[in-house]
Amino acid sequence: MKKTILIGLFSALPIVVFNSCNTSNSQTLANKTADDDSYITIDTSKIPDDPFGESVRYGRELMLKTAYYIGPNGIKGKYLGNKMNCTNCHQDAGTKPYAFNLMSSHDNYPQYRGRENKVLTLAERVNNCIMRPHSGKPLPLDSKEMVAFLSYFKWISKFVPKDGDFKGAKNLEIEFPDVAASPERGKALFIENCARCHGNNGEGQYNADKSGYTYPPLWGQYGYQPGSSMHRVIKQAQWLKSNMPYDKVSPGKPYLTDLQVLDIAAYVNDDSVHDRPNPKTFDYPNKMGKPIDYAHSPFSDNFSEQQHKYGPYKPIIAYWKKNGWKAVY
């Protein structure tokens, strides 16, 4: 018997490149099942009416309006160094498919992270994001806000298989071209597809009360740091493929080609023309755990920083495979 499906409303929201997605509707888009072409949704009206449910609701609010609560002028604390929100990357409060989906995060942690070269708890991973893309300081592990984040992740985890195998759990893969990604080509594509919301200078657009962004910045003083996942060309391209331009895509149905999303990511992350906050540290102390598109030496191979950043990536992957190593990206 076919299960009932609730269709989410995120596709009508105004999003380009990194969506603020400050929706408060009770139906939140989740993911496809293996036996159904529709998208399952989470009905947030089902959140329990008890102290745990209160924490879940606050956690979702923190995902959607992170800067309002804990940003530079946050009403509950000043932990972020910028006014971006978690949902800018983890769209629809972490439940949108192919958009750094977080619905299995509660089940997937603790896990090893190459950036720190150690096993992290989920709370440590939350602070990892707060400190890097948000240029902030860590939340106390016993704070109301950290408990709310973890409560929300626990609640949304019940909607997906415990093995984490569901449609949209990970971003779409990229088929790598034989040429390097080009910031020059990417600039033209950015002007055509992205600048209308994020501005020609990537500055983004504040919301009405300037507590956060309707369209967040893509570089500059208030953008994400080097070392953030979005600063890696492959990783950002995987995200862009299914999510942008917002009005020309639907989950799993890209508008731009793989080369085009790589080019846009190359332009957005071109540090020769775009300033960024100074990183607190360059990560990945273990070279073997370093993603191939992380453009800071030393590497376990002899490819240049330029090629690690922009490609072509096929020779790097082939070299790693020849040596019996697993290329991370």
From TrEMBL:
Domain annotation Cytochrome c: ranges: 181-272
Residue ranges of coiled coil: none
Signal sequence region: 1-19
Matches recorded under Pfam families: Cytochrom_C, SoxA-TsdA_cyt-c
InterPro entries: Cyt_c-like_dom, Cyt_c-like_dom_sf, Cytochrome_c-type_DH
Transmembrane stretches, start-end: none
Keywords annotated in UniProt: Heme, Iron, Metal-binding, Signal
Name listed for the protein in its UniProt record: Cytochrome c domain-containing protein
Organism this protein belongs to: Flavobacterium collinsii
